[in-house]
Amino acid sequence: MMDLQRALLYSFFIISIISSYNCSQEDPLDHNHLKEQASGYDSQAYPSYVGDGEFEGLIKLQSDVLGLQTLSDGGSKSIPVKTIDLNDSGVRADGEEDDTELFETAWDEACSSPEGATIVVPQCNYRLKPIIFQGPCKSNIAFQVHGTIEASGNQSDYKKDGKHWIVFDRVENLVVDGGGVIDGNGKIWWENSCKVNKSLPCKEAPTAVTFCECKNLAVKNLKIQNAQQNHVTFKKSNHVQVSNLTVTSPEESPNTDGIHVTDTQNIQITDSVIGTGDDCISIVSGSKNVQATNITCGPGHGISIGSLGQHGSKDYVSGVTVNGAKFSGTTNGVRIKTWQGGSGKCKQHQVSEY
Ligand SMILES: *[C@@H]1O[C@H](CO)[C@@H](O)[C@H](O)[C@H]1NC(C)=O
Ligand SMILES: *[C@@H]1O[C@H](CO)[C@@H](O)[C@H](O)[C@H]1NC(C)=O
Ligand SMILES: *[C@@H]1O[C@H](CO)[C@@H](O)[C@H](O)[C@H]1NC(C)=O
Ligand SMILES: *[C@@H]1O[C@H](CO)[C@@H](O)[C@H](O)[C@H]1NC(C)=O
Ligand SMILES: *[C@@H]1O[C@H](CO)[C@@H](O)[C@H](O)[C@H]1NC(C)=O
């Protein structure tokens, strides 16, 4: 029953994707499939990560992220870092007025800066309409959220693109952290979900934070809550480190996956607490080398790989490792969801729970 609803949702997604931003336009699956064939990659030939070229990629990621850490801590002497503090604008953020322009201006300045730039979101309340932080940028960017960023709760603000609230698109060498809160203010969307009110038509709601075609990315030390639909989506991204996130929304909030991974490679998700109304982590087609370590999951539907093979499609997910996940109040632990009539690979997964 639930999978049927998902199928409906996914098909809505496919139909409506054409009108959204650039990086959603190509078919991610075919692209990945071709690449995999061209490089002669055969996941069966590599039973463990050691010796697999991708493993080196992960080690490289860690040193990249360390470099970025220095940047987000204020920078070493050798890297000049520009700091853009939203408080310097003199805007009194109180969560009542719209602050979208303030963020757009700050992003433009950071992204066009030839030196590494840090955007500081101070301990105030900011309110944002849907926004795209567009790359590529001239240099590294640290986005430090110390305060609270809350989504506009006016649904007519989402008319242009009903699928996304905050998007980082084609940004490389990015750290998003700061100890603050990103709040999707999702109540209005949940109330208007067809899963909650059966008399309403089924419509997609925005993902709170989407990283699309990003590379060398760290997302950490944040609370992400009350998403309209998914909380955080990594799409077509590579070399991603996610750690110390607290992702929460009410158990009865519909379709609020915690972390959704699609067509993304070399991603580590560690030390995070996720409790939502849907999957804690969902991993779908085109994803490779996904490591989830020390995840506390619940309430929610557990960690899922799939749904794979819907509409008879060929889906490829390989190299998923789940270590030390704790489940409480979840309807499932780790599950692989497949559809009849689909084909493809879903292999080399290791699961150890404690
Ligand atoms: C923001 O700036 C004002 C002065 O313009 C200062 O009083 C306030 O403490 C600052 N807030 C933060 C969070 O830095
Ligand atoms: C929502 O936004 C629309 C258009 O921007 C505006 O006309 C309307 O007054 C807003 N509604 C609320 C409740 O603020
Ligand atoms: C469900 O939606 C209908 C149509 O908009 C509305 O009239 C009704 O009050 C809603 N029910 C609940 C429980 O919100
Ligand atoms: C984890 O993130 C929270 C903010 O959500 C922060 O207060 C805490 O210091 C972080 N822990 C570590 C070990 O960095
Ligand atoms: C697991 O993650 C939690 C935070 O989510 C952290 O407090 C704890 O120290 C981590 N455990 C290990 C073994 O790293």
From TrEMBL:
Annotated signal sequence range: 1-24
Active site, UniProt feature: H301
Organism expressing this protein natively: Salix koriyanagi
Compartment list: Secreted, Cell wall
Gene3D superfamilies: Single-stranded right-handed beta-helix, Pectin lyase-like
InterPro entries: Glyco_hydro_28 (IPR000743), PbH1 (IPR006626), Pectin_lyas_fold (IPR012334), Pectin_lyase_fold/virulence (IPR011050)
Similarity remark: Belongs to the glycosyl hydrolase 28 family.
A biological process from GO: cell wall organization
UniProt keyword annotations, A-Z: Cell wall, Cell wall biogenesis/degradation, Glycosidase, Hydrolase, Secreted, Signal
GO molecular function per UniProt: polygalacturonase activity
Pfam families assigned to the protein according to its UniProt record, in alphabetical order: Glyco_hydro_28
Official protein name in the record: ENDO POLYGALACTURONASE
Domain of life: Eukaryota
